[in-house]
Amino acid sequence: MRILLVGAGGVGDAIAKIAARRGFFELLVVSDYDESRAQRTVDWIRTKHGDEVAARFATTQIDASDPDIVASVAREHGATHVMNAVEPKFVQAIFAGALAAGADYLDMAMSLSEPHPSDPYTQTGVKLGDDQFAQGPDWDAAGRLALVGMGVEPGLSDVFARFAADHLFSEIDELGVRDGANLVVTDEEGNEIFAPSFSIWTTIEECLNPPVIWEEEAGWFTTAPFSEPEVFEFPEGIGPVECVNVEHEEVLLMPRWIDAKRVTFKYGLGAEFINVLRTLHMLGLDSTTPVRVRSDDGPVHVAPRDVVAASLPDPATIGPRMTGKTCAGVWVTGTGTDGGAREAYLYHVSDNEWTMREYDAQCVVWQTALNPVIALELLATGVWQGRGVLGPEAFDAAPYLDLMARPESDGGYGQPWHVEDRLA
Amino acid sequence: MRILLVGAGGVGDAIAKIAARRGFFELLVVSDYDESRAQRTVDWIRTKHGDEVAARFATTQIDASDPDIVASVAREHGATHVMNAVEPKFVQAIFAGALAAGADYLDMAMSLSEPHPSDPYTQTGVKLGDDQFAQGPDWDAAGRLALVGMGVEPGLSDVFARFAADHLFSEIDELGVRDGANLVVTDEEGNEIFAPSFSIWTTIEECLNPPVIWEEEAGWFTTAPFSEPEVFEFPEGIGPVECVNVEHEEVLLMPRWIDAKRVTFKYGLGAEFINVLRTLHMLGLDSTTPVRVRSDDGPVHVAPRDVVAASLPDPATIGPRMTGKTCAGVWVTGTGTDGGAREAYLYHVSDNEWTMREYDAQCVVWQTALNPVIALELLATGVWQGRGVLGPEAFDAAPYLDLMARPESDGGYGQPWHVEDRLA
């Protein structure tokens, strides 16, 4: 396996660092618009693991917005797999470039949605991933695989859902992805500050788009942002967090392969973050349309959302000042394999202290990066095989979760996951 | 009287329009950095009142940041009075320019404060107006008057305080300025939108600076922003509004001329606006320090606060889509002239429907502009006389309030004010 990794931001960097401990690939080319970022990643790997490991890595410059360039870089390095680790707005270009180069493709976020033009909070418009699934026949015909939504959420959450359907439940009422954390960031003086652990730009996009829900009868439909608030109790000391419906890929992926009466995604934003997003929206500061603003160099035009992002700490830099854990999982309700009612939360927790120590990566970013590496390993070893445009739940979940949980000393990733039964 | 009006923004425009109905001055020169704004004001006066009235107005360009230019424009037009109607950051330049030109001076906001360097939420640093009062001896020696803080708040509020001290109370416990409104702004479709009726830039400055309080024993001291919230009941249908301490000129002015045990300013921001300001502060979007932001023309540097201001509707343009009233006043407690306990709210209400119909000016801006015109008239007629740097409470309040309340048909401004006794 020869991997072209597109993007050496937080998640791309962590993908390369996690892969450096594994032997399943021949070459991993770290590429970025700014090649020095790719170089920094490979330098870290060389310092941590030595020249022999670093020899399986290369760096290159890439423009992820141009499918021809993506294809030509992939061909140049003989890439068998293109791993997309940049912002979702580049999905289409990298997706097309990989197919043109005859490579398989993985991403962690799918092609973007567009709200329904007249009824956005009831009906779907263009859905997440629609553009990619529309090209499924091309991938199938070419005998190539596009494994879409293969991060942590979507990604690990979809694997959990498949595992629950295959091994824990005979009938599923709801697959409810629930994501929450107790992360706290402090400034130099130790005072708690507001510093989202994930791109605020993407978070605004996710949270202010109409959330999508799937139901057996109704199919896909949307609601107003922040709908159906619930306090979900997260495990391992994280505790209760206010969660609301958010537009997310799982809702578009799971119903295609798994039988369930309802599929939802609720994000544990917490009351403070929800208030921030509502306020930004009320003030128009979520907008991506440039406004004219005075500056010392005369009037300029900037998108308010870019200014919000520029005013906050870079999520990639806050790891050392962050404490706490993040939890990704699926809350499944229905009938267990024994025929009785069952409610179970399948989850994985990532602790920032550990990810910083082991990988110099903050835990949200690291947890996202872990999963595509596991998937690549299963594809490299032939445990997972497929063609066309497929989600993670199209594959057998058991070997995935086994490889993930098994100790590193036994060839696994040493990342245990858990099933918490919640029915009294 | 020959007046140089510096600034033809919302308040400057309304000052000229209000003055156009009065005969006390010989010439009013409307000046602005953008002379077309001044021209627009005079064009409105010509259309509304005819050539004869408009003949007492002129326009010119001015750079309010340069005292030499202010002085030279004042001399050129033989200005006897310089009326400052621009942002407080230009106070020092216009103040100096007026004195250099040998003119009297009026403003509606005083020289800016600087927080205490180590203990900002307990101790004052540089206070509002400190820089101006320090130059009092120069004005006194020159035989010239600087009447500072002569808008509605500060301004009318200080006149009310002086009136209460002279005519309603024998001893004052607290002079509590209380400002509130029930203004609502709607978009084209009639949906309520967030659109502050006053410059958000200035509002952030006022509300996030440490609020200042004066007490007989302690003198001036500060608190954390938004301290001492209280729900104040405003008259004429406005109703209850949540008010909090805010840094404001009255607290610096009133104790210099009026005996009171305590002086406070609370602004009826309402819970929603307080939340907006807190959120902007938490995100660093109140900052005036430029941040680097991507734009279609490459990276640029903009101050987040300027972007917030640019993203919201221009307060000068929302009048036609606004409904409601704004109330300015002083809540006075203590001992009445009859020796019994007394609590009274002295106030003036401005109704947006009326100010739009009569002046094409929204009510908050119009109410601010009304007061310096009344003061100029009292100075022109010699009813008010003084030298040095003085606040409105240094002058007799009775003729001011009489001129304000008397019907236009009887030579007044037709703006009644009220005393509401609140002690059961």
Automatic annotation (TrEMBL), chains A, B:
InterPro entries: NAD(P)-bd_dom_sf, Sacchrp_dh-like_C, Sacchrp_dh_NADP-bd. GO terms for molecular function: ATP binding. The keyword ATP-binding applies. Residues 3-146 form the Saccharopine dehydrogenase NADP binding domain. Residues 151-405 form the Saccharopine dehydrogenase-like C-terminal domain. Pfam families: Sacchrp_dh_C, Sacchrp_dh_NADP. This is ATP-binding protein. It comes from Agromyces albus.
